[in-house]
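>> received
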Amino acid sequence: MADVMIAVMPFVGHVAPIAAVARAFLDDGHAVRVYTGSAHAPVFAALGAEIVPWRAAPDFDEHDLEPTFPELKGRKGPRQMLANVEHLFIRTAARQSDDLVAAWRDRPWDVIVADNLSLGARLASERTASPWVTVAIVPLAIPSRELPPPSLGIPPARGPAGCLRDAALRRLLPLATRGMSAAYSEQREACGLPVSATAFEESWYSPDLVCASGVPELEYPRSDLPPQVVFVGALTTPPRSTGELPAWWSEVLEPTASVVHVTQGTLNVDPHDLIEPAMGALGRQPVTLVVSTGIADAAQLPFPVPPNARVAGLVPYAELLPHVDVMITNGGWGGVLAALSNGIPLVIAGGDLDKPEIAARVAWAGAGVNLRTGTPKPGAVLRGWRRVATEPSYQDNAQRIAASLAGHDGPAEVVAHTLELLASRPA
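>> returned
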């Protein structure tokens, strides 16, 4: 059996899929340690994993980042994404690797398995000369000579003019990321590591094995996808409810109108961004709106709720999604994959971080409408809903992707691919 170190950035959206991977390793009989922040350590401890806490790295509260990272104050949209990447993910990497190397010295692992934004895992892998597996919990952002730069939310070009556009954007990418690249070089230097021969944009991904959540149907076609990339489908299945369901739940189980789910995810949950315009758009339509605020104990909204809306802090997706006809979402990858696994077409208002890229891919795959903003107007939401609710192609494509996702057992596949990697390496 293998001794596995798992590294996961302490965010809800990272913890859920990596917890499923940790459980799969434990169920297969392997020794598992998990390196994560204190807020999420109980999740992994409950599974039976040994916890390695953030000590040298700053242990932060994902719902209140500014006290730990004052550089993020007042930032949203692209400016927030750039600041998040630099300060949360890059400039903590050396100290993350210090924590991991300390755990290695205590007991060497056979392999380190990490979410793709855990850059400290790469540095620790290099410092310990141990194999490293990337679990990509968001869409791949590996650059391609055939596509526009990743994370811009731009689908592949069509025609000669579009190809010239993409080529120009690719030339600009090193300029746009030079600040982050410099920060990464500083982190390597702080660890005593040499200048990397790998481009900064590719440094997030293991040269040994990349287990990518999702399916090829949501990946732009390219001939230069690295050979170590394998798609493993969804990493989580929606958990069933362990508590009391809302009093209005019968309206979901036996709906008298089409059920539309509205969610703003669990990060940047200002309800004025998406929930309010969605209610303004559909409050008088013949639908039942099931709205989640994204905060477990916060089911109240700071504005009037239309009569056809039912609001909860969080809703149990295992019970809800089989009854949903359309999802209106901010585009978090886990929620998008959960919806598509149920064949649900989407209206996506992706405003920051990886969400514009996710919205672009879903629209490119024909399974949803991309509103191209995180703060849409009610009219835009209404038009998007009408398109996915009335044009059969959206549901057809969502069901096509659902069939592909159903062919995978993501966590078990991560375990199998990892063991194959270890078996292929010399003792």
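>> The chain has a mean pLDDT of 91.
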